[in-house]
TrEMBL record:
<keyword id="KW-0501">Molybdenum cofactor biosynthesis</keyword>
<keyword id="KW-0500">Molybdenum</keyword>
<keyword id="KW-0479">Metal-binding</keyword>
<dbReference type="GO" id="GO:0006777">
    <property type="term" value="P:Mo-molybdopterin cofactor biosynthetic process"/>
</dbReference>
<dbReference type="InterPro" id="IPR005111">
    <property type="entry name" value="MoeA_C_domain_IV"/>
</dbReference>
<dbReference type="Pfam" id="PF00994">
    <property type="entry name" value="MoCF_biosynth"/>
</dbReference>
<comment type="function">
    <text>Catalyzes the insertion of molybdate into adenylated molybdopterin with the concomitant release of AMP.</text>
</comment>
<dbReference type="InterPro" id="IPR036688">
    <property type="entry name" value="MoeA_C_domain_IV_sf"/>
</dbReference>
<keyword id="KW-0460">Magnesium</keyword>
<dbReference type="Pfam" id="PF03454">
    <property type="entry name" value="MoeA_C"/>
</dbReference>
<dbReference type="GO" id="GO:0061599">
    <property type="term" value="F:molybdopterin molybdotransferase activity"/>
</dbReference>
<dbReference type="Pfam" id="PF03453">
    <property type="entry name" value="MoeA_N"/>
</dbReference>
<feature type="domain" description="MoaB/Mog">
    <location>
        <begin position="173"/>
        <end position="310"/>
    </location>
</feature>
<comment type="similarity">
    <text>Belongs to the MoeA family.</text>
</comment>
<comment type="pathway">
    <text>Cofactor biosynthesis; molybdopterin biosynthesis.</text>
</comment>
<dbReference type="InterPro" id="IPR001453">
    <property type="entry name" value="MoaB/Mog_dom"/>
</dbReference>
<keyword id="KW-0808">Transferase</keyword>
Length: 390
């Protein structure tokens, strides 16, 4: 058995970042920027008013000063001309400041009579202008790689970037295996259960920015599994679920070998997730996850997520860990790294008592995995412990 770190290194060696494709800005949210982007203009492109009021020359401002209002500037409608001493231009938020002005007096601070305004004593020193290029300047960069957020999309739009280069979404084929499985919504026989892992993993894969493809459930026969592998052949990543252990009906390893899998490893010193396997079939990486529902989901967070991030060009990093205090004592750990279902709250980390890898209710109640190193001794309330957020 190899360690979790060794398994991850093997998985990173099996995968490379995918190529890039161009997408319109409206489709770019959540995608990974593949090439640096440079602003094509300054923002604002001119010195702009930040308020509704009157544009004047700042040196003229004093209580009681009067100005003749000689024109109007609105957003999208600059006032052309030169503003002289004792003159002002009516101005609105977003309008370019006219020549000869560098200050906006907000309209609340003047008294207007016809075309004359008089400054109140409440006029202050704040210029209420946004100099050209205060937000960004032409040539300023947004660096790749980066998962594009809604804020990034707004900034890219402002930079006048209509199309951008993003990493292609990995296509991930999911093969659930087992005679006992039916799809959600079907009527199970008395000895059948519902395929849950495939749906949970598909959700995780989509959340990570990849495209999950659910294949029909493969039955516990070589022919059915072989057909599923053939259907998955054009995927970037094949994920099988179940059939990975040592039972007579655990055929995934054998059929993958028939399909030419170059196996990188089988079995990892972790709980849950021991019967994990991985390798390459042609150009496609294959990860065989254990069938127990919680095992499959934990392996999804610990292995699948870092692999997908690497394929997206986000680097080869294990799942992010944080350290928090235990809210409750934890028993000693054994010879496998243990990813314990737990809840992180204001009081700290509470590890659930029930850790059976078939309990999806416990997983759903968890918001993190508490990571216990091999042979970690018993821990007390207040001890620091590593967690991975779910
Ligand atoms: N003698 C041994 N038996 C087992 C060992 C072992 O080392 N020696 N390891 C155990 C561990 S740990 C795990 S994990 C399981 C994993 O076995 P498989 O990957 O072969 O999984 P299956 O036997 O196919 O299924 C296990 C369990 O999970 C259910 N299952 C499978 N697929 C799904 C799915 N898509 N959705 C929901 N549930 C699923 C399946 O019905 C079984 O109940 O092996 C132990 N045995
Ligand atoms: O390792 Mo199994 O994945 O413990 O349930």
């Amino acid at each position: 058995m190899i360690s979790v770190d060794e398994a991850l290194s093997h998985l990173f060696a099996l995968t490379s970042p995918l190529d890039a494709e161009d997408v319109p800005l409206i489709k770019a949210h959540g995608r990974v920027l593949a090439k640096d982007v440079h602003a094509t203009r300054n923002q604002p492109p001119f010195t702009a008013s930040a308020m509704d009021g009157y544009a004047v020359d700042a040196t003229s401002i004093k209580t009681g000063q009067t100005y003749e209002v000689i024109g109007e500037a609105a957003a999208g409608h600059a006032w052309q001309g030169q503003v002289g001493p004792a003159q002002a231009v009516r101005i609105f938020t977003g309008a370019p400041l006219p020549e000869g002005t560098d200050h906006v007096i907000i309209q609340e601070n003047v008294t207007r009579a016809g075309d004359t305004i008089t400054l109140d004593d409440s006029a202050n020193d704040t210029p209420f202008v946004r100099p050209a290029g205060t937000d960004f300047k032409a040539g300023d960069a947004i660096r790749a790689p980066r998962v594009l957020t809604p804020s990034d999309i707004a900034l890219l739009a402002s930079m006048n970037i209509a199309t951008l280069s993003v990493t292609r979404r990995p296509s991930v084929a999911i093969i659930a295996t087992g005679d006992e499985l039916v799809q959600p919504g079907e009527t199970p026989g008395p000895d059948q259960i519902i395929a849950s892992n495939s749906y949970g993993l598909a959700a995780l894969i989509r959340q990570l920015g990849a495209d999950p493809r659910l294949l029909p459930i493969a039955r516990d026969t070589r022919a059915s599994l072989a057909l599923a592998f053939d259907l998955a052949a054009d995927a970037d990543l094949i994920v099988t679920i179940g059939g990975a252990s040592v039972g007579d009906h655990d055929l995934v390893g054998e059929v993958a070998a028939d399909k030419g899998m170059d196996r990188a490893f089988y079995k990892v010193a972790m709980r849950p997730g021991k019967p994990l396997m991985a390798g390459r079939i042609g150009r496609t990486t294959m990860i065989g996850l254990p069938g127990n529902p919680v095992s499959a989901m934990v392996c999804g967070h610990v292995f699948l997520a870092p692999v997908i991030r690497k394929m997206l060009g986000l680097g080869a990093q294990p799942a992010l860990r944080e350290t928090h205090a235990l809210a409750k004592p934890a028993p000693a750990n054994g010879p496998r790294e243990h990813y314990m279902r737990a809840h992180l709250g204001p009081e700290g980390v509470t590890i659930f008592d029930r850790q059976d890898s078939a309990l999806l209710t416990v997983l759903a109640a968890s918001n993190c995995l508490a990571v216990r190193p091999i042979n970690d001794p018993a821990r007390n309330t207040g001890d620091q412990i590593d967690i991975i957020r779910l």
